[in-house]
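pls design
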């Protein structure tokens, strides 16, 4: 990866940009057989109840190789038909990057290297240089979760220049001068990260260092399932992961319920294209189920 590290702020900005997609990647990936269902779709139409016009719900994967990028005419047309793009966070907010970056700095004064043994840190330094073209010294002020975020996303992709669904959609709506909004703030996402035990994060970092090939294979499997638009399988990959443990509620369920408290009012005012991590769509506490429980009609757009 050609990630530039010419200034100390550069890696902070990179990690802040990755925050929005973190919760689909953070726990690692578990392989399992694909489940077939007629409901397979990344794109869902929301209508009924008190809505004058439909809104749409789309499941993203934050970074993907250009050759795997899936963007159908139905997805394109649905985005164009809406008035606003709503992401997990308002990536158009000029203050977002600084807020997220500041939240990832270890304010206890503890250096990143102190969380690892001398041998572990040497391996980590080599991994960052060889796999991501980054000198780890630029991350010394940051929390371990910031390092894991960067490694989980940038380090797992199999191409030199992966692309972001969020950035692609933002380019489209900006050209049309449409508004970009968010379902939660950087502070809210950062508060979720604080619930993850530091020792578990450190173990996961070293797991990625020691099993680079396996992690990339698992990432490739996740991309395959994503392209099949199997949101049930994607959700299962996250909830079945042993690394997730008891974090299902704060990482997925609680955030979904928070979003559902905001979405109805947004949809009543205008037609919205909601784009969130695909792992949030399915499951008993997924966004689709919660919207239906409120009386909305939510159906796949094939």
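designed seq:
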């Amino acid at each position: 990866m050609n990630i530039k590290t010419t200034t100390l702020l550069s890696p902070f900005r990179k990690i802040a940009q990755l925050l929005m997609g973190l919760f689909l990647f953070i726990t690692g990936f578990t392989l399992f057989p694909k489940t077939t269902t007629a409901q397979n779709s990344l794109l869902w139409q929301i209508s009924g109840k008190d809505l004058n016009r439909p809104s749409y719900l789309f499941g993203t994967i934050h970074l993907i190789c250009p050759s795997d990028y899936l963007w159908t005419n139905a997805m394109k047309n649905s985005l164009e038909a809406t008035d606003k793009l709503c992401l997990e966070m308002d990536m158009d907010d000029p203050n977002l990057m600084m807020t997220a970056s500041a939240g990832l700095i270890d304010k206890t004064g503890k250096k990143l290297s102190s969380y690892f043994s001398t041998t572990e840190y040497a391996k980590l330094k080599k991994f960052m240089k060889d796999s991501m073209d980054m000198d780890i010294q630029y991350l010394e002020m940051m929390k371990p979760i910031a390092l894991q975020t960067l490694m989980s996303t940038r380090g797992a992709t199999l191409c030199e220049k992966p692309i972001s669904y969020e950035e692609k959609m933002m380019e489209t709506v900006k050209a049309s001068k449409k508004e970009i909004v968010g379902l939660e703030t950087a502070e809210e996402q950062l508060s979720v990260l604080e619930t993850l035990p530091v020792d578990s994060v450190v173990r996961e970092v070293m797991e990625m260092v020691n099993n680079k090939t396996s992690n990339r294979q698992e990432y490739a499997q996740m991309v395959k399932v994503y392209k099949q638009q199997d949101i049930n399988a994607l959700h299962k990959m996250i909830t079945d992961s042993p690394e997730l443990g008891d974090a299902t509620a704060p990482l997925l369920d609680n955030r979904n319920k928070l979003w559902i408290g905001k979405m109805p009012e947004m949809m009543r005012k205008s037609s919205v294209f909601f784009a969130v991590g695909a792992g949030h769509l399915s499951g008993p506490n997924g966004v689709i189920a919660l919207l239906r429980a409120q009386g909305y009609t939510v159906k796949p757009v094939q």
